[in-house]
Design goal:
Layout (H helix, E strand, L loop, with lengths): L7 E8 L4 E7 L6 E7 L2 E8 L3 E6 L7 E10 L2 E5 L3 E4 L5 E9 L3 E9 L12 E9 L11
Antiparallel strand pairs: 1-2, 2-5, 3-4, 3-6, 6-7, 6-8, 9-10, 10-11
């Protein structure tokens, strides 16, 4: 018998010290896609989407705490399907590394990685936040900055 695939799933896009970005995904293609999201077993949000994917930002978190999230599909006010439970732990603190990937005459591609355990990694995941920034460098000699 094939494994059942829920019509709704949640995953993490990034985890910070006091915030998380969640991705809510629906496998069905027909809107409307009504859902309720629960955090630690308590109702957090109910909404309806037209798109199959959306990002949800939760800024009500505390440093170093564990949270669970579960999404339910709704038909009217009735739950008819659910995601697997997602468990996350916010960062206690973050160690930041700034490296230049590509330096040109007038611009540089900088990589900012934050690691929970002091190890810098190239992939995003539950423990890593990775941001790429493009910074325009000053072309005039008198606009320099040093620390």
């Amino acid at each position: 018998m094939p494994e059942y695939i829920p019509t709704v799933s949640i995953s993490t896009e990034s985890i910070g010290i006091t915030r998380i970005v969640l991705r809510l995904h629906f496998t069905e293609t027909k809107p409307p896609r009504s859902f309720s999201l629960f955090k630690n077993g308590v109702h957090f949000i109910t909404d309806t989407l037209v798109a199959q994917d959306t990002l949800l930002l939760d800024t009500t978190l505390f440093r170093g705490r564990t949270y669970t999230y579960k999404a339910y599909r709704l038909r009217g006010n009735t739950r008819y399907d659910s995601s697997k439970t997602l468990t996350i732990t916010t960062l206690d603190s973050a160690t930041i590394a700034l490296t230049a990937d590509d330096v040109g005459v007038t611009d540089a591609l900088l990589k900012v990685c934050a690691s929970r355990f002091g190890k810098y990694e190239e992939t995003c995941g539950n423990e890593i936040i990775k941001i790429l920034l493009l910074i325009k460098l000053c072309q005039k000699k008198n606009y320099s900055h040093s620390e």
